[in-house]
Amino acid sequence: MMNTDFNISKSKYVTSIIKSLKIDVKIFAENLAKGENYEVTIHQWSTNLFNEGKSIDKAIAIIRERINKVIQNNFINDKRIIEDQIEFKKLERIITELESKEIYSNLGDEEKRHLKGKIKSFIETRLYDHRAIVNFVLKIIEHNKKNERTNQMTNSKNRSRFDNSRILIGVESCFYPHVSLLKPTTQSSY
Questions:
Q1: CB neighbour list of residue 93: distance below 8 Å, 6 or more residues apart
Q2: pLDDT confidence band for 5 (50 / 70 / 90)
Q3: What is the 3-state secondary structure of 22-86?
Q4: Cβ burial 131-150 (10 Å sphere, 16+ → b, else e)
Q5: Residue 14: exposed, middle, or buried by beta-carbon count in 10 A (0-12, 13-18, 19+)?
Q6: Hey, is 131 helix, strand or coil?
Q7: Rounded (10°) angle between helices 37-51 and 3-20
Q8: Can you give the pTM of this predicted structure?
Q9: Which of 116, 142, 147, 174 shows its CA 20 to 30 Å from the CA of 78?
């Protein structure tokens, strides 16, 4: 087969595929010349299938399947983008509401960043509405503040006990220089 016959049969092959996809051949050729993605892709697929020796019917079926996959992937990606936008708006709404609460706004940046990660996790589960998440975060903050106060009081009491024992030891050494409250006493004989 001569090169011209090859090009003519390839052209008929591609044209048959284009017509089967309900695309106007003239518009397809114009868009192909402009380098439009859809037309360039269809042309590349058609040319590759021709070079592989696929029948026109088989090539049409393969190209339609590929087009469907592209559309499905775009739909899935679009859906993910929309879901990400919804989650972002929900996060913004929750953070805005929390910022209006004094207990949250008084937190440090590191604590807020940590809580933001927790909030994102709650949003991703899609189990809770924004009101439930806000209430839960506020309860977490209150619980942590309560624990901090308890720890501070415990540490303060321990420090106080330690300071009191040092005072007692100092007083003891003034009055009883040979007796220590910290050392075990041995019985002395009189």
A1: 130
A2: low
A3: CCCHHHHHHHHHHCCHHHHHHHHHHHHHHHCCCCHHHHHHHHHHHHHHHHHHHHHHHHHHHHHHH
A4: eebbeebeeebeeeeeeeee
A5: buried
A6: helix
A7: 130
A8: 0.43
A9: 116
What would the pLDDT profile of 93-134 be if each residue is shown by its tens digit? Answer: 999 999 999 988 888 888 888 888 888 888 888 888 888 888
The helix/strand/coil state of 176 is coil
CA dist 171 and 4 (Å) reads 115
Torsion of CA 69, 71, 74, 76, to 10 degrees: -70
Closest by Cα among 108, 13, 23 to 56: 13
CA angle 67–53–9, rounded 5-degree value: 90
Q: What share of the chain is helix, strand, coil (3-state, %, to 5)?
A: 80, 0, 20
The two structure tokens encoding residue 52: 């592989």
H/E stretch holding 95: helix 56-99
Tokens of 40: 């360039």
DSSP annotation of 182: S
Q: Which two tokens stand for residue 152?
A: 């501070």
